[in-house]
Amino acid sequence: MSRRGSQRLVLGVDLGSSSAKAVLVTDDGTILARAAVPQHVSRPAPDAAEQAPEGWWTALRELVAATLGTLPEASRGRLAAVSISGHYPTLLLADGRGDPLAPAMLYGDRRADAEVDRAATLGGEALAGDEWLPKLLWLQREAPDLLRQTKMVFNPHDHLAFRLTGERGLDHRSARRTGGLLDISRLTWRRDLCATISLDPAALPPLRRAGEVLGHVTPGASADSGLPRGTAVVVGLGDTPAELLGAGVVHPGEVLLYYGTTTSVDVCSHDFQAYLVDPSPIAEWAPYHEVAYAVIGPALPWVAGGIEPANGEDRASKIERLDRAALALEPRVDGPYVVPNFLAHVRPGTPIRRPAIIGLDANQGRADLHRALLESFGFIARAGLEAAGVDLASAHFVATGGGAQSDTWRQVVSDVVGVAQEWRPWADGALGSAELAAWGALGADIFASGGWIRERGRPATLPDPARQAIEDARYAEWLRLRAAIKG
Question: Which residue range forms the structural domain that includes residue 338?
Fold first, then answer.
């Protein structure tokens, strides 16, 4: 029998808010199959953003069929482990059997914005506004009966793991993003806060190390999901740390530039492997810090929408055409500029942040605006990196996400920030979950020098020296405009 025919397999799954992905990998790091299925966000009320948890299970079933299900039936038993990551902090309330009591409130749900300041005071830490605690305070006021019925609380990734195994368990990094509910010195849930919000402390999930085996796929879950009975289920991560792991951003001084619907800049602050072994540095937000964040992706098709299609081209083709036109443009200090406040939580008494387009004149068109949108990620990235004190000269930058396929976008960001980026197109949260499954269940050396996955990055995107001076000037002007808008 060939080595390939006897290899053990791992499956990584990542639940995004707009799509769910899976990747099937052999025990030597060879990618066998990938799949993706769309996810739907419902908005039943102003500021609401919800998902039906059954949609997560349906996605898992479809992903298993599209990856493991493509193998001969006799080969499917080679699956050794699965791990699941997902968007967080997303709040799902469930009864004593783990059945959902209501749709899940996504991280982008803004109905609890008025509770953020109180939650920050109660929890004793600064909040972004997307955490569990503000939502629980809102539910205490708006739906107290629902909160009284709650016997279990989940994020998407630990809910699917529970459905597969019957075991509860949440990783420490996800617990850290609940808004002060976690006692970071003792690594236990705060019973005093549970009493304040009228939540049974037992409803909060047991804390488990990411990468440890939570349990095994039950016969019922096997029949419904397509995963082999007895497959190990490894405790997963939230989507961002899984993305870092999949991209190989696992050592201090490495930086992930994520190009997607949401763009972000995440700096690895602790050795990732050491954190998985001992999560106590979670008090310092191990293993990474998010230093910049903006929702830019939805604006790109909006800009492209007014272009007349050529020869029946689709929206993606129009954006590619804009990319080519934008790359040919020479940036000018006199605009246009974009301040990308396309989604932000708003606290009472603070100015409402809206996206701003400044300096677009009659002699400029959609390509100029498109370039300014792409450039705005570079500006927020540079501002965040500078504020965090990151040494740009010594840091190693890795680009991932669907938007990173745009050579233009990567080039513009490199020009603005003044750094080279290595593009790793295969890297995503699903791959990070597969690596975690291999590390936790098979002892695979995913942190080996050179990486475990048998893929290599593309040639680095280098900053254009000829544009450094003008981009420095544009960055200074963008900072001035942003400060003026904030007031």
Answer: 299-423+460-486
